[in-house]
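Module 6 notes. Inverse folding takes a fixed backbone as the condition and produces residue identities as the prediction. Think of it as a translation problem where the source language is geometry and the target language is the twenty amino acids. Below is one complete input and output pair. Work through it position by position during the lab.
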């Protein structure tokens, strides 16, 4: 027993040695991956029972990347040597994965003989390949291959965006707080882990449907996706929503974002209706809409834009404008699309982006994106290439990211909607994900079945982040989930984000969303075919909220001593700020040059530690306190090394003043801000 245990320990030690020098990999696959030890008896694939035989000495004890047997993609996140095992004789149904590896720069290792990796078939005998990979390299791997020698592995369900695969030599951080939602600004880290957080839902909704006389009724007070913004000009929150579905658009204001007032807009006497009866048919033909201040205008709060999408297949979408957000004038037709299409402004590409509903046979609901420079009727067009009615080309200078579908390893999930908003240095996106999972009686929970039981579809909200406006990386889990059938709660299902995504109040992010309770007494077998607002699956809707710490999507957590070193940075500010929690520890920083040598006067010893506090905005000051504080040297290629002890770091930024303004975007704003940016 002792000899056997010693052998295992020796093998693990050897694997650790291999891994210490191996490259870090990101695998794009819908299945789980992990790092193991390549030794006799090791499981080779995550979804097959095959075990490794007695191995050639050069390979025995190497780190083993356990993947599904199907194909995947590899993004190299650091330099190192990588080995690959591929069939000597491909199975007739499989691709020639060995030849593909050679074309991607792998070389055959002559020192390792061909050997039987598993089974008894000739296509289960493998050849060994090797390559010294570099950070930023990308490989496509067909079925099947086994990889060895990695130092660390992580998984994503989408390829790395270009800004992560090939980050710039110097990263300009003057555009706002730098969040740790990915490793874009991180060159190296040790002793820390990335921990994702979810907003905390308020127990009860903040807005429910009302009669004109103020009494409560059923129906819905929802925003799909509407808009909720802080307006610093009038000092109030503004909300555009609908009451009882089908285009009954309303307007409300609030001083605190919780208690709402409903002004008479003069369209329908005594009500807060945005449109009069029959006006542009908006009392009948409205399925989803978006309201935004015009980011491109000199005064965004005096130039509101509204985009409306009608229900059904290929219906006209309409643009409106308003100088006060209360009375809207028709600009013209924007295009023709399916229902649940929305609009947002992308600050990273400086364009308005239409998020258009699409779908594919066998795929279900998906999205297509089209970006334009201006919102004007001259951009009107049919947006789908396979539509025979399409009459015009796409406007010049548009950007159309790849189609987003549910083919991402998420099983029965579908992309129901997608909205985004500029937040600090990022675009903050929210994916509305539809779960068409199987109910206890074996039925899929989609429109047809939900109608028969009078309960809402099950959707959840998942954060996504982009640094270029074209590619989004998703958070690992849903941020806000429905309470589910049988919970009896107001947000049983059909969660939808509200345009603007979140406001900032009391140093917390407030996410407003719509949801439905449903009504089983109004199920299909009792009601038959009735308008949407009288179907139980679309009944008893309200608007609620969930809150999260400022920048708190995720944090870099050190349970002991930890360190984060940034990539080379470019900045013009002179004051270093952090958002950190160190109630039982501390955070320090030091400035290092291109050779990672500490800049004199800016070592960790020169930094007054942030200790035993929890702050969303705190300056890390350099100086001994007797000769005054030192402003940061000009940041052109400098790095910042953060030292943490029992602390969590959420973000950092370099501000031009001691006030700590980030110069980044603030989503839908908040009482502490005079506009759309923290300036």
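Target side of the pair, the amino acids:
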């Amino acid at each position: 027993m002792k000899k056997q245990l010693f052998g295992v320990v020796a093998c693990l030690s050897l694997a650790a040695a291999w891994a210490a020098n191996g490259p870090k990999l990101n695998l794009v696959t819908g299945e789980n991956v992990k790092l193991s030890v390549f030794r006799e008896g090791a499981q080779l694939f995550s979804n097959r029972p095959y075990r490794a035989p007695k191995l050639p000495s050069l390979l025995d004890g190497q780190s083993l990347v356990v993947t599904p047997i199907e194909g995947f993609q590899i993004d190299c996140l650091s330099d190192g040597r990588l080995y690959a095992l591929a069939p000597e004789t491909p199975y007739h149904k499989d691709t020639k994965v060995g030849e593909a590896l050679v074309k991607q720069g792998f070389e055959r290792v002559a020192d390792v003989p061909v050997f039987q990796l598993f089974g008894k078939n000739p296509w289960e005998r493998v050849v060994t390949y090797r390559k010294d990979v570099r950070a930023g390299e990308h490989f496509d791997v067909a079925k099947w291959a086994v990889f060895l020698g990695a130092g660390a592995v992580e998984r994503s369900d989408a390829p790395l965006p270009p800004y992560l695969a090939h980050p710039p030599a110097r990263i300009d951080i003057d555009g706002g707080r730098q969040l740790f939602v990915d490793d874009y600004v991180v060159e190296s880290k040790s002793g820390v882990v990335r921990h994702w957080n979810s907003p905390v839902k308020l127990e009860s909704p903040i807005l429910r449907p009302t009669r004109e006389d103020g009494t409560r009724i059923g129906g819905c007070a929802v925003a799909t996706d509407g808009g909720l913004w802080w307006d610093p000009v009038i000092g109030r929150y503004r909300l555009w929503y609908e009451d009882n579905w089908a285009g009954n658009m309303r307007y409300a204001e609030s001083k605190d974002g919780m208690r709402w007032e409903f002004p008479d807009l003069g369209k329908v006497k005594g009500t807060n209706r945005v449109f009069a009866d029959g006006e542009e048919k908006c009392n009948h033909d409205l399925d989803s809409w978006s309201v935004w201040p015009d980011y491109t205008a000199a005064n965004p709060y005096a130039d509101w834009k509204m985009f409306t999408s009608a229900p059904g297949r290929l219906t006209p979408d309409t643009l409106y404008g308003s100088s006060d957000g209360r009375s809207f004038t028709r600009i013209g037709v924007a295009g023709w699309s399916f229902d649940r299409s929305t609009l947002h402004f992308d600050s990273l590409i400086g364009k308005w982006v239409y998020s258009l509903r699409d779908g594919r046979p066998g795929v279900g609901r998906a999205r297509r994106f089209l970006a334009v420079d201006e919102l004007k009727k001259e951009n009107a067009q049919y947006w789908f290439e396979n539509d025979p009615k399409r009459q015009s080309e796409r406007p010049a200078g548009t950007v159309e990211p790849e189609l987003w579908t549910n083919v991402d390893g998420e099983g029965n999930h579908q992309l129901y909607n997608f909205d985004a908003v500029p937040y600090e240095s990022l675009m903050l996106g929210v994916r509305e994900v539809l779960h068409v999972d199987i109910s206890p009686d074996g039925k899929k929970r989609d429109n047809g079945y939900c109608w028969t039981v009078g309960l809402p579809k099950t959707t959840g909200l998942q954060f996504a982040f982009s640094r270029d406006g074209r590619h989004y990386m998703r958070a690992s889990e849903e941020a806000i989930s429905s309470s589910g059938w049988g919970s009896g709660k107001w947000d049983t299902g059909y969660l939808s984000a509200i345009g603007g995504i979140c406001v900032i109040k009391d140093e917390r992010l407030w996410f407003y969303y719509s949801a439905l309770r449903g009504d089983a007494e109004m199920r299909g077998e009792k009601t038959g075919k009735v308008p949407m607002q009288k179907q139980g699956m679309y009944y008893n809707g309200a608007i609620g909220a969930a809150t999260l710490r400022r920048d708190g999507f995720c944090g870099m957590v050190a349970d002991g001593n930890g360190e984060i070193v940034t990539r080379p940075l470019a900045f013009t500010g002179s004051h270093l700020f952090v958002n950190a929690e160190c109630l039982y520890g501390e955070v320090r920083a030091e400035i290092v040059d291109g050779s990672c040598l500490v800049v004199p006067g800016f070592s960790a010893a020169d930094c007054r530690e942030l200790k035993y506090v929890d702050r969303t905005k705190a300056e890390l000051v350099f100086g001994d306190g007797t000769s005054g504080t030192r402003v940061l040297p000009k940041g052109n290629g400098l790095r910042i090394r953060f030292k943490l002890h029992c602390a969590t770091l959420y973000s950092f930024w370099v501000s031009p003043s001691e006030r700590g303004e980030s110069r980044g975007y603030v989503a839908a704003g908040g009482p502490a801000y005079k506009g759309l940016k923290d300036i």
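Reference fact for the lab report: Residues 287 and 311 are 5 Å apart (CA to CA).
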